[in-house]
Structure formats: C-alpha cells, structure tokens
Automatic annotation (TrEMBL), chain A:
Organism: Liquidambar formosana (Formosan gum)
Keywords: Cytoplasm, Nucleus, Proteasome
Family: Belongs to the peptidase T1B family.
GO cellular component, one term: proteasome core complex, beta-subunit complex
Name of the featured protein: Proteasome subunit beta
From TrEMBL, chain B:
Family named by the database record: Belongs to the peptidase T1B family.
Known role: Component of the proteasome, a multicatalytic proteinase complex which is characterized by its ability to cleave peptides with Arg, Phe, Tyr, Leu, and Glu adjacent to the leaving group at neutral or slightly basic pH. The proteasome has an ATP-dependent proteolytic activity. Non-catalytic component of the proteasome, a multicatalytic proteinase complex which is characterized by its ability to cleave peptides with Arg, Phe, Tyr, Leu, and Glu adjacent to the leaving group at neutral or slightly basic pH. The proteasome has an ATP-dependent proteolytic activity.
SUPFAM superfamilies reported in the protein's UniProt record: N-terminal nucleophile aminohydrolases (Ntn hydrolases)
Annotated source species: Liquidambar formosana
Protein name (record): Proteasome subunit beta
Length: 204, 203
C-alpha cells in the first residue's frame, strides 16, 4: 500500500479562454475507512492563484501552511502578489529541499498570470514541474482523470462550458476510484470573479 | 482494542473512551481515564500507545495552561487543535507520537466543536469522529442516527447505542467506558458505563 494512497484524492485543473478551473474531490479517508466528506484540498493563495494538494493529508496541510507563510513574506517584501510562474518555482524549490525525505504530496497550481493569461502546472512529490497548456491532473484517480480530460477537453472554452467540462471529467473519474469521491469542489476563476461550487456526485 | 469516539450536539460536545489499559493479553486496569480535561472548556480524548498518550496529552495540557498564564486569555478550541497538530507534525519525521486524538471544546463565540487529529497529524473539524476498531461500529451507528443539533438526552442515547454495538460485535470489546461532556458550563465527566467493576484490595 502506497503512502500516496493513504488518504485518497483527485485533483484537476483546466485552462479556458482567459479563465481557468480547478476541481477536487471531497473525501478524507484512512485507507478503506471514510473519515469526512467535506475535506478541503484546494487552497487560495491570492485572488488569482490557487493550489490543490493531493496525496498524504498531513503533508498537504503542512505544505500549505509553509507556502502561505512564504507568500505572505513575499507580499510584505515585494508589496504585490506572486505571479503563478514564480509560485510554481517556489513550490518546486520547497519540495526539492526535502529530496531525501519528501512531502508525500502532488500539487496542482492554477493561476491567472500577466494579461489574464491562465497558467496551470503540476509537480511530482520532489518538485519536478510539468507545465501544460490544456489540463493537469493529480491524485489516486489521476489515470482516470487523464482519460476523461483528454476526451472532454476543448481549447478556449468560456467559463460556463469549462465548468461543465471539468465537473463531468472529475465526477466520472472519481466514480472509478474507491479512494476519492463523495462529491466535488470546483473553482472557476476569471479576471473579474471567482465562482466556487460544490458538486453532488455518487456519494460512495 | 482502544475505542474513542465523539460527537457535537446542540451547544455541547461529547467524547467517549474505553477505560482499559492493556499490554498484550493482560488488562492492567479497567478504569484508566483516557479523556484529559485540557482546560475549563476543552476535552482531549486520546487513543494509542499508552506512554505516548499520557506524555503527549499532558504536554498539550501544560502548554495550553502556559498560554493562558502568559496571555491572560484561554486558547480557542481551533487554536488548541492546530497547536496539537503542529506538535504532532513536527515530531512526525523525527520521533513520532503514536496517538490519535479527538479534541472537543466549547467557545463562547463559535459554540461547540470537535477536531479529529490522527497520529500522522491530519487535522479536520468534524461533527462526529471515532478511532480504533470500535470506529467501524460507532461511526456507522452515528451515520445512521446522528443529526445536527441533538439534545444531550438524544446524544447520550446514541452513545449508548454505539457502546452496545461495540460490546456486541467487537471480539475483544472493552468492558467499561467513560463519557465526558463540554458545554457552556465547562468540561466535566458525565457518566461511566461499566460492565466490569475493579475489585478493591481486601482490607
């Protein structure tokens, strides 16, 4: 049994037309037992930058606390928010610091960069960045998510269509994974607003 | 095997724990209190290695008291839970504690709350939680009968149902349980559920 599969998670981020969407499942489990069905895996760093953390829940919480700390320091020093590309490099550096005793997390970073251009990327547990132009996935349901996203994704989707696509991709993928599910949590971010929604899927 | 479970009701939170201190096949005592009263309005129910349980919960209790001495005001339940998680997380990759914790508290502003903290420092605020083999029975019982805003009578009834189910279905079921409650009037022992009494030494 892998340590990455101890708690169970599913994360996906997709790029749209001047917007992005990031979605996660809501289950917190301890191997076969479900502890909670409202566990948060996507965190806001600032209004235009979100990070989802899959993998071991304790490391996701520790990593999130460290990243928020570093971003707040950055804001104090630079008097502005971090760009998504910069934040992704920060995440990568923090993960590689623990190269021989890593955090058992796979982050998914999504943000709006300069000129409202959406940026998404994922890294592995030791900080190897994977930039993508369309979608990135992470978690125990990642293989199903790759398939679902590859078939459902279209470039330059408007926010409403992007929301539908990412929701369907997430729900259909977690239904094939026993360790993730119990609903979905979707954020659709445009330059003007952030729309947060809860999805009701198969509650098992 | 150790059973700890808890739930949140209308203006109160309950934590229930078994009271057996066991080493391998031997039951040292059947009236071991595993729910520590952290401060006036907080309860810390812990299960796991008995040495770690006693040491770690006492460490948290003393630090919560220290904060109150230094700052003149008590910690909120959320702050105490995050402190506990922080200590477990720091120790995790050095000298891990094998203690699972249910932290219940009552705050004047936010009411009752229950925090689930497992031994690898995963923290989550819950309405009902449980640890150990007993959790397979008590969680299912609570999933069926729990609703938010239960009265004390309804909650104790549910707790009794859980205890009966554990006694019925768990092969090495602990005989005795202690129930503690925390509400606006403070944290205190509510009741014991004993099916085996410790005999006192002959005079």
């Amino acid at each position: 049994m892998s340590i990455f599969e101890y708690n169970g998670s599913a994360l996906v981020a997709m790029v749209g037309k001047n917007c992005f969407a990031i979605a996660s499942d809501r289950r917190l489990g301890v191997q076969l037992q479900t502890i909670a069905t409202d566990f948060q895996k996507i965190y806001k760093i600032h209004d235009r930058l979100f990070i989802g953390l899959s993998g071991l829940a304790t490391d996701a919480q520790t990593l999130y606390q460290r990243l928020v700390f570093r971003h707040k320091l950055y804001q104090l020093r630079e008097e502005r928010d971090m760009k998504p590309e910069t934040f992704a490099s920060l995440v990568s550096a923090i993960l590689y610091e623990k190269r021989f005793g890593p955090y058992f997390c796979q982050p998914v970073i999504a943000g709006l960069g300069a000129e409202d251009k959406p940026f998404i990327c994922t890294t592995d547990s030791i900080g190897a960045k994977e930039l993508a132009k369309d979608f990135v996935v992470a978690g125990t349901a990642s293989e199903s998510l790759y398939g679902a996203c590859e078939s459902m994704f279209k470039p330059d989707m408007e926010p409403e269509e992007l929301f539908e696509t990412i929701s369907q991709a997430l729900l259909s993928s977690v239904d094939r994974d026993c360790l993730s599910g119990w609903g979905g949590h979707v954020y659709v971010v445009t330059p003007t607003e952030v729309k947060e929604s809860i999805l009701k899927g198969r509650m098992d | 095997m150790e059973c700890v479970f808890g739930l949140v009701g209308d203006g109160f939170a309950l934590v229930v724990a078994d009271t057996s201190a066991v080493h391998s096949i031997l039951v040292h005592k059947s009236n071991e209190d595993k729910i520590m009263v952290l401060d006036s309005h907080k309860l810390l129910g812990a299960s796991g290695e008995s040495g770690d349980r006693a040491q770690f919960t006492e460490y948290v209790q003393k630090n919560v008291a220290l904060y109150q001495f230094r700052n003149g005001i008590p910690l909120t339940t959320a702050a105490a839970a995050n402190f506990t998680r922080g200590e477990l997380a720091t120790a995790l990759r050095k000298n891990p504690y094998s203690v699972n914790i249910l932290l219940a508290g009552y705050d004047k502003e936010t009411g009752p709350s229950l925090y689930y903290i497992d031994y690898i420092a995963s923290l989550h605020k819950v309405e009902k939680g449980a640890f150990g083999y007993g959790s397979y029975f008590s969680l299912s019982m609570m999933d069926r009968h729990y609703h938010s805003g239960m009265t004390v009578e309804e909650a104790i009834d549910l707790v009794d149902k859980c205890i009966m189910e554990i006694r019925l279905r768990l092969v090495v079921a602990p005989p005795n349980f202690v129930i503690k409650i925390v509400d606006k009037d403070g944290a205190r022992e509510y009741a014991w559920r004993e099916s085996v009494k410790d005999t006192s030494a002959p005079a």
